[in-house]
Design brief:
Number of helices: 2
Strand content: 35-45%
CATH topology: Immunoglobulin-like
Order of helices and strands: HEEEEEEEEEH
Helix content: 10-25%
Distance between the termini: 94 Å
Largest sheet: 5 strands, antiparallel
CATH class: Mainly Beta
């Protein structure tokens, strides 16, 4: 029968392995979520403008990582006066382990537009009570040009 002896490198490898498992466990516990959501600007112009409003078009991609259906709601979090979200006003039902992409349009009346502004979207999934906050930048024309054209 052989005698198993630990030397300094064996203890170092053991300590590094335990440290790696600890970091993995902490990261998985605090950062892993049962859903994923990300928003991107749609292809084409960065904004659209007509006689009444300035619009920005986005695409919201949502992933249900659970093995059961999930209901996701999306809302603007503390928007400035006049900013409205259209296109995703109802809850989205997602099948288990699936990905869904939906268009999202944010509009503001021309008279309320004061320049580019950072907006936050609150994306909430149930069951699981998971919330993801995504920031987007609302773009538009030069506000001084709007005022001189009126």
């Amino acid at each position: 029968m052989t005698d198993c002896k630990w030397n300094a490198s064996g203890y170092a490898y053991l300590a590094l392995g335990l440290l790696g498992l600890t970091v993995l466990g902490v990261t998985a516990f605090f950062r892993a979520k049962p859903m994923h959501a990300e928003i991107s600007r749609m292809l084409g112009p960065s904004f659209y403008m007509d006689e009444a409003v300035v619009r920005n078009h986005f695409q919201l991609r949502m992933v249900n990582k659970r093995n059961q259906p999930m209901t996701i709601t999306v809302q603007l979090q503390d928007p400035p006066a006049g900013y409205l979200m259209t296109g995703l006003t109802d809850a989205v039902s997602m099948p288990a382990l699936k990905e869904v992409a939906r268009p999202l349009v944010i509009v503001v009346p021309k008279e309320s537009y004061t320049g580019p502004v950072k907006l936050s979207l609150r994306i909430h999934g149930d069951p699981g009570n998971t919330t993801v906050v995504q920031d987007v930048e609302f773009l538009g024309p030069n506000p001084q040009m709007l005022r001189t054209n009126e």
